[in-house]
Specification:
Blueprint lengths: L3 E5 L4 E4 L6 E3 L26 H10 L3 E4 L23 E3 L4 E3 L5 H11 L4 E6 L6 H12 L5 H8 L10 E4 L14 H18 L4 E4 L12 H10 L5 E8 L6 H5 L1 H22 L7 E9 L5 H6 L16 H15 L5 E7 L8 E3 L5 E3 L3 H10 L3 E3 L7 E4 L3 E4 L1 E7 L5 E7 L6 E7 L7 E7 L19 E2 L4 E3 L2 E6 L3 E7 L1
Amino acid sequence: MRTARFTLDPAFTVGDVDPRLFGSFVEHLGRCVYTGIFEPDHPTADEAGLRRDVLDLVRELGVTAVRYPGGNFVSGYRWEDSVGPVEDRPRRLDLAWRTTETNRFGLSEFIAFVKKIGPRAEPMMAVNLGTRGVAEAIELQEYANHPGGTELSERRIAHGDKEPFGIRLWCLGNEMDGPWQTGHKTAEEYGRIAAETARAMRQIDPSVELVACGSSGRSMPTFAAWEATVLEETYELVDHISLHAYYEPLDGDVDSFLASAVDMEAFIEDVVATCDHVGARLKSKKKISLSFDEWNVWYLSRTDAEVAALDWPEAPRLLEDNYSVTDAVVFGSLLIALLRHADRVTVACLAQLVNVIAPIMTEPGGPAWRQTTFFPFAQASRYGRGEVLDVRVDSPVYETRKYGETDLLHATAVRAEDGTVTVFAVNRGRTEPLPLEVTLSGLDLSRVVEHSALADADPDARNTLAEPERVTPHPVDGTAIRDGRLEAVLEPLSWNVIRLA
């Protein structure tokens, strides 16, 4: 097996990691909220009904921003239903997921949840531009953020929240290009309402950060044309444009699945090119950032049948994918793709946080546990803070049906403020170990603090209620720095974290 190689040099960098790259997503979908983060009758529930065991795992995961309340759910969302005394909140049909929403958990409860994650976590609020519009968006903003003295801000105070919520980051709708979206719009229609909503929200507070809806997938027939049209209307009014991508193995093509990040990186680069083209046309010096606010491994092909079978239940078991080692390696590779584009991707949200295609699973009245995908996210959030170094790999390749020749090695590296460096690397090869050599140029590094790998002899191994710790990262021996060069061996089908000091 040929050795994979790259060079690290602090003179060649991508950019600083925005902490919000490690965001997540809470939608009123399945059991993400009810019996996920919120279960008042659970033995660990706090005074607000939040599961303490889940909060502990969310803190360990290292989540920095939480997008809410959707997702497709937001396009039918009436924010007024989710505030005030719980006993007065109405039950509504949720058209997106064919369920009944009780509104027992609402805006105030969500803000309390984010605050309990910790001081570095922030809310990312989506407004409904599907069935509602400008007026409702600015009313929600005033209720949430204005200190007092107006009907809406005083209503919040009367509901028990004296201090404003201080929501800075707002999504202008969700996936408005998708025909499945309630209130689906053309690019021209959405561009106009997004621009008018952004303009009104900035009249209340010029400092808000706004995310315009990009394409809900790179495969959409209107991809790129949608972004260009929307940005023609909103370029000087918004800060970010959104990207959404999910990956699963199709037709048994595991090799292409392992190369999913090839598509993610191309998606990012295409959107950057589109944004910069519009900026050039408008003769603007501004650069639009990217908010990759939905991404994950998701067995999406199963979803339509799951949802169609529902008859308006409350919080059913829905989209509860159980992730394997193979899924976790792909997941880690997607994280690497985001880090490799940290100069333009400044917000990203793993969809979702609990139970629904999530790194954390719970049983009602029972335990919470970590899925295999929990570990790459937690390690990247912990050690992926700092400046991303430019990694250009020289790697053996393998053939994929979908992407042609693809590197077996997918890697990036992040240099922290104290000079330590963490290498994140995936070996996509399913059967053979991959030797790795990294030349350390201009870096004062002499020792390997740790090399951990997530891999298993059974690529289908997964964590379950019965075996919640079947798969965890393990230490790798033999990794060392010799004569200014890191030498390691990456196990077959593995996610690796190598920390250097």
